């Protein structure tokens, strides 16, 4: 028997704003996938394949485990990176710039807030803005 997960009260607000954020990021040239693949390893591999086919150089996604966390805790971690080492070789701050672009774009949606310390090796936390 599968256990029912109690849905966090912030789930609907965060999910709706995430949809808008990801739509915006796609317009900015990202491969942006929500609730995609089973985990970060598989999601990274599959997004990299998509980005190569679509000739895109920015990726952001969260996986099914992240969706489970969003449902139960009301927040989600976004994974982001460039699909190719050539971008980071030419610009060592490329992944960091991708992170900043995501955070800046999220500011268009006052009902959510992005928490990130600027470290490109860390995910970006998206949660409900307590003031929004």
Short description, anyone?
The protein is 46% helix and 18% strand. It has five helices and five strands.
Explain this structure.
By secondary structure, this protein is of the alpha+beta class. It has a five-stranded mixed β-sheet, with helices on both faces. Helix content is 46%, strand content 18%. The chain has helices at 11-27, 40-54, 64-73, 85-90, 94-106, and strands at 30-33, 58-61, 75-81, 112-115, 124-128. The chain has five helices and five strands, in the order H-E-H-E-H-E-H-H-E-E. The longest helix is centred in the first third of the chain and has 17 residues, at 11-27.
Major β-sheet profile: 5 strands, mixed
Ranges where pLDDT stays below 50 over 5 or more residues in a row are: none
Pairing-aware structural class of the strands and helices? Answer: alpha+beta
User: Could you tell me the number of beta strands?
Assistant: 5
Report the mean per-residue pLDDT as an integer: 93
Secondary-structure element series: HEHEHEHHEE
What is the terminal-to-terminal distance? 38 Å
Which strand order does the major sheet show?
1-2-3-5-4
Strand content: 15-25%
Please describe the structure with a list of short key phrases separated by commas or semicolons.
about 130 residues, alpha+beta, five-stranded mixed beta sheet, 5 helices, 5 strands, about 45% helix
């Amino acid at each position: 028997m599968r256990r029912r997960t109690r849905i966090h009260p912030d789930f609907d607000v965060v999910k709706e704003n995430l949809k808008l954020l990801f739509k915006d990021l796609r317009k900015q040239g990202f491969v942006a996938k929500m609730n995609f693949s089973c985990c970060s390893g598989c999601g990274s591999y599959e997004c990299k394949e998509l980005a190569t086919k679509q000739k895109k150089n920015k990726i952001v996604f969260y996986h099914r485990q992240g969706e489970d966390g969003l449902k139960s805790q009301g927040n989600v971690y976004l994974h982001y990176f460039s699909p190719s080492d050539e971008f980071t070789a030419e610009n060592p701050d490329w992944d960091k710039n991708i992170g900043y672009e995501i955070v800046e774009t999220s500011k268009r949606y006052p009902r959510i807030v992005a928490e990130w310390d600027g470290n490109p090796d860390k995910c970006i936390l998206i949660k409900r803005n307590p003031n929004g």
